[in-house]
Amino acid sequence: GKKITKAMFGRFKNTRKTWQKRRRYSHHDRIKYKQGPFYKTSIIWPIKRFLGRHLQHTYGKVILLSALTIPVYIATTTASRRFFRSTYMASSIALDYNKNVKKLKGRERDIALSKFHIRSARKLLYLFKQQGGIYVKAGQQMTTLHYILPIEYIETMKVLLDQAQYFEYSIVRKSFHKEFGKYPEEIFDYFDQVPLGAASLAQVHYARKDGIEYAVKVQYDGLEEVALSDIKTIGYISRCISYLFPEFKLGWLIREFNEHIPEELDFINEANNAERFSELFKDDPRIAAPIINYDLSTKRILTMEYIRGCKIADMSGLKNMGFNSKLVAKILNDAFNKQIFLYGFVHSDPHSGNIMVRRRPGNKNKPQIVFIDNGLFQTYSRDFREIWSNLVLSILKGEKDNIRFYCNLIGIDSYKLFTEMINARSWKSSMSIKKYEKLNYIEKASLQQNAQDNMTEISKLLQNVPPPVILLLKTNDILRSLNITLKANRYALAADTIKYCQKIIDPEKTFKDKLFFGFISIYAYTINLMTNLVAWFKSLFSTNEDFFLEPVFD
User: Could you list the active site residues?
Assistant: First the structure.
């Protein structure tokens, strides 16, 4: 071993000056005679000398070539490439932190840390777009973690909600032939090669057959095969993040991925969810799910009714259809109140790209919201729904002792922190009527600072909370964001929530609860009346006829 080391590096060191001189004088000559620049072959020279002296026999060359071939083969497989790409990016972020942030203190560290988060968020966004599939799903999930992740990551990852990467039409044809034995143009009368949109796990194409319009959802080719390794890789990255930042414990996120990604990859499961959802809401024309064509659906391809409308957060689209955003917000919250408190079958990924608004069939002047992506649902027992209803009602009424009691029943010790996470308000505001009011700038800044100060406690809470509660928190956060976008009447929504809580707890209701519900309802009507009066006064001095608002209550 010593002789080989000396032969390889010792002789290389001794001839270092000669080699540099040779490189300097022969570089242009090599280019002149079209032999290529010298520096491209310079690293091969000492290896050739080493091989010439010590590996002259055939068996030695075979061993060396085999040793070089194995890692090259591994690196060329899809899963390995994705793993190496991810670990490279994680290493880059770690080195950036050690170099530019780790040794700093005080105000200087805060400024450097904010810049580091911006750089890291952009690197992760690039990685997620490049990898696609589950990585995009992880990026979308990050947009809901405002109580644990820095704002730089949340704002950067919002791009992934609407701008997932497309794949070529040739891959779509290959997937169809693999599933049906036919190409899409052989199955449908018309199949648009340009996708309508792309989600984290699939993309959607417009098609027609026998005069019926369809939206055809095609899963990314090979996604199921690399899903398991991707989840493991994301777990590895999360452990690296937890090592660098001990306050970020993301094990619960990986646990959720392991449990729910297989369900979302099975489009037959999504079709069954949509059918069950439609059955539950068959008596409510305001809420629907697409009709599924089972004859043209498989585990990797889903053919469903094409929905003409706009995304629920598209305010200009709602205005063009003549719908009041407050009324749309009320329908949306009624849909989730029924799912959570009455049916126990809850859509657990309700971001704006998964919910559309269209004109109601049979009544074009009224809106209907349609849940178009039904891959992830969570089922809750009646016992859990009763506990959750009591907890929500206690939070809305500001009953501290009851909040502590019901939080303990579902395994939560930090009841104050949990209440702040549900309300996105401080504990003091959560115990007063202020929780129904719009969040002001001062309290918002205070909440962000409080989240940073209690990052370790928040991570610990999320680690120990049961998975069904994690999904309810996620759903609650997305709904809150949509309600802000739709400019919802907070008092009206609170009154509706109390009404549904009472239906699962005690249909008869006590006098005290009736009084509280009546107070909130009257307050909601008053706020709505004042809003309409303001709109009426504005219309007196404006030529725009769209100032009048529809009533929030049916």
Answer: 349
